[in-house]
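Today's session is about reading a structure prediction critically. Students often jump straight to the picture, but the first step is always the sequence itself: look for stretches that repeat, for charged clusters, for runs of hydrophobic residues. Only then move on to the predicted structure, which in these notes is written as discrete structure tokens rather than atom positions. Here is the chain we will use throughout the hour.
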Amino acid sequence: MARRLAILGAVLALAAAGYMLIGARGNWGFVLPFRAAKLAALLLVGAGLAVATVMFQTITANRILTPSLMGYDALYVLVLTALVHGLGASGYAALPPALLFALNLAAMSALGLLLFALLARLARGDLVRLVLTGIVLGLLIRAGTTFLQRMIDPSAFQMVQGISYARFTQVEPSLLGLAALAILPALALAWTLRHRLDVISLGRDAAAGLGEPPARLERAALALICVLVAAATALVGPLASGSLGPTSFFGLIAAAFAHAITPHARHAVLMPCAALTGALILVGGQTLMERVLALATPLTVVIEFVGGVTFLILLLKRRSA
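Below is the predicted structure for this chain, in token form.
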């Protein structure tokens, strides 16, 4: 396992070097710091969302569920729309980026915990009911967002549309430090839960029999998931192309590839592998989109296509098992 992780890390390092150096011309004192900011955002978002998805799949005991598929990313667009509706386009644009990041992080974390707590209460341990409830709540959130968007003027609506999707080419450097202060400690705390996640992956009854209260661990994991996803989304926006609304398959792809690369049940291996895989997908994909295809298509469109295929494969494998 250590060898596979080392190879994955080496490939990520090569992809990062390619992103920094391929096509670099002109004043390197400007080009390299400019690219370094975007590279840092790609690494933070990729690692944060991948680890959050692995933890979410562990506590829900399902390999096809992600926070995004359960309606979490829709909260980001709802918060943005509510801010633009309440403050107006000019008032929203006048907000300092750090304050806006903090508002998004706090609102999404609080609403995310409320959303997942409501899902758990309504589903009552039934996996099918959990999925259906998540889909319905996601639709309700999107319906509320659409209602608010119809009440704002066209210029404000255009602003909401422009900030509702991932913006890796327009990363705000001043927000990287804030995002790192949220994502890196959350990743460190997630690492401390690795052995407890191994226990709960055996099942709730087995975990309780081994002295690990499932409810307490699930609350701790959900809090970290909300912080990771909220910080990553507040930094660059949701990784959605728009055809499915604010829903992204990125976490599903990263977790599925991590399981394929290292088919190991231990989270001490799975979480680092997922973090490296998620970062590699974003860094390698963005390098290809920017340096080879000249941004002919957004990376989110490719992620959505590959994620849809991955979702279908996992679903069919689950039915045939």
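Discussion point for the tutorial: DSSP finds 13 helices and no strands in the chain.
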